[in-house]
Write the structure tokens for this entry.
Amino acid sequence: MIAVLKHGTTPDQTAHLVNWLKAMNLDVHISEGTEVTVLGLIGDTSRVDMDLLKSLEIVADVKRVSEPYKQANRKFHPKDTIIQCGDVRIGGGYFAMIAGPCSVESEEQIIEVAKAVKESGANILRGGAFKPRTSPYAFQGMKGEGIKLLLEAKKETGLPIVTEIMNISTLDLFSDVDIIQVGARNMQNFDLLKELGKTRKPILLKRGLANTIQELLMSAEYIMSEGNENIILCERGIRTFETATRNTLDLAAVSVLHELSHLPVVVDPSHATGKAKLVAPMACAAAAANCDGLMIEVHNNPSCALCDGAQSLTPHQFDELAHRVRLVREAVR
Ligand code: PEP
Ligand code: MN
């Protein structure tokens, strides 16, 4: 981190600031120019409050020269992280095809969808049991019962399962869940992230609706700072001025995240677009962008779905998507 001091700062003021910084266990390199003095802060600057430093009377500007995330940073961990979940691996060339309904609705529904998506090449089953809905009057999910049905589907098909947690008080219900999802709305629920950091479960961390790539990585850092390194990042579209799609899929995020971090990156084109017919083209585009997996909503009867029917594919449409994605992956390999 670099702090530029204002012209006219006295040696006393500079010494006072340097002592304050040293008290934070930082080494300070002072370089005095003819116009300005520049302080180079050396050491762990992740705990320095940049805004506070910037607000000081004698400080003209503060810049980070290293990222505030350490454990998620590729600089300190050049090799791709591979997440192991049952027999399935994600990252470092291993591809996750995650598919299933937005919400678990009944035993017949989840088993039927699970069998169909497995047949088409999915290797992980998704299904929401705790649903974060915009309206309190909308279907809120089958909760614990939904997780039991997912476990039934897992037993029936052998597919590992991923489902969303909304509140840490329900963690016990997730003991047999293979991957715990943190949804977009909870990406910055820091207490939840810290508690999940104390587990060793793989966490699928979705990007918030209005969060930057750096904020997503800082949320991953929250989980990692408690000891859990099993994180899969998920780009699921961000909110922009565009209204033609539910969100705007930020595909460049896949490449940016791969450059900045060693963690695997999965893309969810279902929530990103909100429209079934846009899901396959965006899934292919994400595969071409070298994502480590896809998360696709599939329903046996989308027009009757209790949640997100408009963006859900039929099992047949998913089968076609999976085939096209395989072709794209072979073509770009
Ligand atoms: C979901 O995957 O079911 C979901 C609610 O997604 P998001 O958090 O990305 O909106
Ligand atoms: Mn959904």
